[in-house]
UniProtKB/TrEMBL annotation, chain A:
<dbReference type="GO" id="GO:0030036">
    <property type="term" value="P:actin cytoskeleton organization"/>
</dbReference>
<dbReference type="InterPro" id="IPR042489">
    <property type="entry name" value="CapZ_alpha_1"/>
</dbReference>
<comment type="function">
    <text>F-actin-capping proteins bind in a Ca(2+)-independent manner to the fast growing ends of actin filaments (barbed end) thereby blocking the exchange of subunits at these ends. Unlike other capping proteins (such as gelsolin and severin), these proteins do not sever actin filaments.</text>
</comment>
<dbReference type="GO" id="GO:0051016">
    <property type="term" value="P:barbed-end actin filament capping"/>
</dbReference>
<dbReference type="GO" id="GO:0030479">
    <property type="term" value="C:actin cortical patch"/>
</dbReference>
<comment type="subunit">
    <text>Heterodimer of an alpha and a beta subunit.</text>
</comment>
<dbReference type="GO" id="GO:0051015">
    <property type="term" value="F:actin filament binding"/>
</dbReference>
<dbReference type="InterPro" id="IPR002189">
    <property type="entry name" value="CapZ_alpha"/>
</dbReference>
<keyword id="KW-0117">Actin capping</keyword>
From TrEMBL, chain B:
<keyword id="KW-0206">Cytoskeleton</keyword>
<comment type="similarity">
    <text>Belongs to the F-actin-capping protein beta subunit family.</text>
</comment>
<dbReference type="InterPro" id="IPR043175">
    <property type="entry name" value="CAPZB_N"/>
</dbReference>
<dbReference type="GO" id="GO:0030036">
    <property type="term" value="P:actin cytoskeleton organization"/>
</dbReference>
<dbReference type="InterPro" id="IPR042276">
    <property type="entry name" value="CapZ_alpha/beta_2"/>
</dbReference>
<comment type="subunit">
    <text>Heterodimer of an alpha and a beta subunit.</text>
</comment>
<dbReference type="GO" id="GO:0000902">
    <property type="term" value="P:cell morphogenesis"/>
</dbReference>
<keyword id="KW-0963">Cytoplasm</keyword>
<dbReference type="Pfam" id="PF01115">
    <property type="entry name" value="F_actin_cap_B"/>
</dbReference>
Amino acid sequence: MDSSERVQAAARFLLQSPPGEINDVLNDVRNIISDDDSLQEGVLPALQEYNLAQFIIADVPGSEHQSIISEAAKIEGQEGGEDRFLDPRSKISFRFDHLSLEASDAQPVEPDSEAEPFRAALESSTLSYLNSHFNEGVASVFATPGSSSKFTIQIVANKYNPTNFWSGRWRSEYVVDLAQKVISGRILVNVHYYEQGNVQLETKQNLTIPLPPAITPSNPSTSASKLLALIEEEEGKYQTHLSDSYQEMSDKTFKSLRRALPLTRQKIEWDRVLGYKLGAELSGSKGVFAES
Amino acid sequence: MTDLVDSMLDLMRRLPPTRVEENVSALVNICPDYADDLLGSVDQPLKLKTDRATGREYLACDYNRDGESYRSPWSNEYDPPLDDGTVPTPKLRQLEIKANEAFDTYREMYFEGGVSSVFLWDLDDGGFAGVVLFKKSLNPSTASEPSGSWDSIHVFEAAERGRQAHYKLTSTIMLELGIKSSGDISLSGSMTRQTEQDCPVQNQESHITNMGRMIEEMEIKMRNLLQEVYFGKTRDVVYDLRSIESLERQRRQRELQKELVGFMKR
């Protein structure tokens, strides 16, 4: 494997990192590749891809809240310049270091005046929804450049507990299209448990929620709270479905893979297992070790 | 610098269990010199093979591999055939045949299906080692039904000391569960545990009854553990991330309770 293939392999490992373990994976990869120079340059695009896909959170410079790093938050760098990220809530953009996860160089951003009232209303409803269902959640609500009827709601909740060898991440994203009267969404859940083992839950669910006629851009605050009520209902349904699936996998699949005890409800009598076999062989005329 | 193999093992403990084969092969390509260390320490899903001589299915893993060929426990033959493939000494092969029969009975009683295989090999110090394998897969008849597979890999070493034998057992169980209907749910991984024990030995067959009991104990323990981790721990983390009930309502209730307690104290 040449150097560039090794870096590509390293990038694929990084993209598979469980929640909150990208640094551990990076340390392992550095040790395995042992070529920091080509690695440093080569894995940066992978780190960026990972951060955007995983809704990594940034401490917004100059404010108390956090915002989501994602494709929707990205402001393309002009003329080869580096990408910046938008926090619509504080209306600033910032530089983001994809390795250290630090935000810097805050600059004010003028929001689209047509889209802003509805976006702000969605944001406020999203934050109160976040507060009522997520323990440590972060949400960002983005307007779509050049449109005043399309918005993206993103939610992420992380729990990292390396001391007890587990971590988890809930991501959801909803593209609200007021013109098409539909919300297209997806929910992604990842859990990693790794005490003397490696067990992972990975779920993906796409959702389509039709919008009732009462939801219009002209009455932002009522529409926004109705929209979030719909999302709340769908996420609740999904979580219940997940719970039912757990039940089914535990009660049916797990049990039919392996019984807790044999049908006799007793552990095996090993002397008899051997005895039976030997007895059967001896009663036959074939040699002791003949294939039964 | 930390040991390279440690880094590889740590990495494999973190990356998705559903992609273990792809990731192990990538690591082997990156560090070919460490291929044996890696293949010997990372458990991969067992492969099903069919014995050409008997038509019977057996399990293939790193322990019955010689080059590109795998040895069948039923016919003792390698597939593709090898002229000089490693086989156990005749005495150990006799024990291997009996062990395969005994653990096949065990498999039927606990798994009610699936495939088992036992492989033994001689150790340089006079003792012997072996691996006991079980695999069972469930393929759903409808899309909404979950699929599942269970792979057990029990690696042991036996050292005779007079009328006693000392056994070391390392057991890994890989369990994969999944539903693909309206959305994907995949719950998969592996857990590993070790144990050691001294047991009396009267004859060669004592090794089978001793190992049988140890493996049975271990699987019972690990099945409980898997149940707890798969359906308890990972589910709890999901509920830690998001609550179905409104947390706002819970907070208000707590406030109200506090007020009531304060009121009653007055």
